[in-house]
Amino acid sequence: MTDSTGLTRSHIDLSPFAGAVSNRAERLARHAKKQQALGWFCTYTPIELIHAAGFLPVRIYGGTIRVELASSLVPNFVCPYMRTSLERALRGEYKYLSGVIQGYTCDTPCGMLSIWQENAGPGLFHTVPLPYNSGPAARTFYRHTLNELIDKLAGIGGQTDPASLERSLDLYAEIRRTLLRLYELRLRDIFVPPASGFYTILEAGFSLPPEEYLVLLTNLTGALGNIKAATPSGIPVLVSGSLVEQLWIFDLLEAAGGRVVADDLCNGYRYCQPADGSGADPMDRLIDRYIQRFPCPARSTVQERVPQVRALLEKSGARGAIFLFQKFCTPHLADYPALAAELKNAGIPVLLVEMDESGNIEGQLKTRFGAFFEMIGG
Amino acid sequence: MDNTRKSTKRLATAKELQQIVAGFYLEGHEAKRSGKPVGWMPPMNGLIEIFYAMDLQPAFPENWSPVCAAFGLIDRNYQAADSMGFSPDLCGYLRNCVGYINGMMGEEGVPLGGLPEPDMIFMPGAGCVPTMKNFQYIARRFPGAKVFKADLPQVPIEDIQRYHIDYALSEINRIVEFLTRVTGRKLDHGRLAEVVRLSDQACALWDEITSFRRCLPTPISAAEVGLMFVMVTRQGTQLAVDYLTRVRDEVKQRAEKGIGIIAKEKVRLFWDNIPLWYNLGLFNYFEKYGGVVVAETYSAAWSIRLDTANPLEALAMKSLQSYPMVSCVSMKRRKEMVLRACRDYHIDGVILHSNKSCLPITLGQMDIKRALQEELGVPSVVIEADHMDPANFSMAQFEARADAFIEVLLQRKGYRQ
Q: Å from A303 to nearest chain B CA?
């Protein structure tokens, strides 16, 4: 299956993003010789703080790989993302990382961090506890956890001060604002790349130095300046779920007659929204952004998520919702019955797809996507 | 082959347990009838002591699941959950509970009358994700109940700092304010001190009971794990202290007289992870070979000693420690605990239950397995099963692995089969 990242209009070039994704391992191994890199799994990890301390935050990817070494350390009912990532770490593919920092959300990465430390160390392995509430006491607690992270980072040579944090906050806010602008342009049919291309843009940002990434994004939005709206074909849908590593799934979705107009994905909207927070000092601003962020089921209630996902559906005009879950993803699987029931009650058709680590779901997906869009379109 | 089996208990005091379980559920229904507020809460935190101190009625949906397993109710609950769209890959506690509350709850003839309807619901922000989701579904099912969204730092025990305790303490104070507002009852701090003293006394008794597992032969085995019911539901009560005192006396007497679980104890085993609630008989399986499952990991989470001089802070500390101790949050501490238990209890072999229904406890087992071998020379075997769902357990496969394992252990100890 090829990645169909590419050109939708002759003068829009997404190849720098695709290139950044395809040469990630070699590029990062080189980069880590001049700047220490720290891995992260979850979008609740305060990457701004890691960057402010002088490190390059890098999202860990697993992808499609035969799991052999990791099978001797974790059971097969761990999600593919965690198993394949561990497999790569055990094979030495993440040797360039100086450690992994993780915001405490799901049980699995929390446990996996200890397993990485034990079997794929040495380095700084730290989980940042997160508040579940948003009041003043929760924010004070959050500030303590972030100060503790600053201390941990200082232990491996990090240097953070209010000015460096402010600069990193500005940088990531601008990146997120630009990404949200791309979401808007997609909604207005001005920027209509294949969905796999759209999410490759996001994926590139998880490993590129943010300064370089912002330049690429700015170039892209500049090129989109005078483009008129297209008339894209396909039934508009929202995709909701975990991290989607196998972007070719979007190609199948589109080939079957669908078009992604909105998402509630870990490698999509949930990373971007909101672009920034506000506060009396940089730390307050950081805290505010993460407390206000678009919720993941691991760190929110289904009661909170239902209206937010429904709002996305309404705003985007999606006529269906496709749930793309990593197999064994407890937070998403657990929210699904309530979310699906609410959407069905509102007349929105839903489809659930579970992604396994083999990637051998193409045939099954073609049939299921085809039937789904036939049902909606009919 | 039948996947379910009840355990054979050797303690006379274990027979009282049935009455204690029935009494707890009866008390819940009486509370509901008399207007005493009922609160549904997750286990392993300081809420229970506050409830007993304020004369409120606690109920534990998670604890109801083993009861459902014992009464054979889980198939119907799972069917109800399946029909709502809950994946069979989700934790059995979650599926059983949502199935129950949206299915047979309130019907005539449910054993023990089931759970009394909640007036208050404590929706946790720590512990495992399935527990958090379970309470969110409970809140959806009972929209009339008052909901408290509780927060708690989730950190390894060895990393607990003053600010974690302060935040846990502030949440406990917020809970007390909530309870006062909703029920109109005030917390009497003198009464709370007494409840915390009783809770600590129960933990001390529990620790004393488990200490007899050092004895050769052991006077108590994991087959008596049902005793934990009082630790889960009755901490902070005189009833728990009185009952555990009787258990302690019996176990002590057996130890003094050298009465073991079986006539000739040849091999001593340790069980890691939650028991199979629908097949506690597994704990007796090895007895035909002279094997006794001397101890298990799970009960440790319910025995956290409390600083009785500082009741509220003691409850905050309990909240911070219980879940991490037995889960992947505090992997280092958990490994130490298993290794220490194996040393203290003279364990010959360890059964690692790879539990489909509980990833947080299953993660890290392979590192524990390696440490057991490298540091203690204790062999272990992995058994794939599920603490709540018999569909994920094969008795035939268990027997094949268990038989081969016990044979190795017997040979290592010089016994000939």
A: 7
B119 within some domain: yes
**Which two structure tokens, joined as six digits, stand for B43?**
């286990």
Q: What is the ipTM of this complex?
A: 0.95
Which residues from chain B sit within 8 angstroms of residue A129, using beta carbons?
Answer: 153-155, 164
The answer to whether residue B299 is domain-embedded is no
Give domain status of residue B329, yes or no. no
User: Would you tell me which residues 264-323 of chain A have a C-beta closer than 8 angstroms to some C-beta of chain B?
Assistant: 297-298, 301-303
Q: What is the pLDDT of residue A5?
A: 39
Cα separation, A264 vs B311, whole angstroms: 44
User: Does A2 score more than 50 pLDDT?
Assistant: no
pLDDT at B45: 84
Interface contacts A/B by beta carbons within 8 Å: 134
Q: Is residue B99 in a domain?
A: yes
Confidence of residue B9 (pLDDT cuts 50, 70, 90): confident
Nearest-CA residue of chain B relative to A141? Answer: B167
Residues from chain B contacting residue A296 (CB–CB below 8 Å): none
Q: Is B153 a residue whose pLDDT tops 80?
A: yes
| CATH number, position B185 | 3.40.50.11890
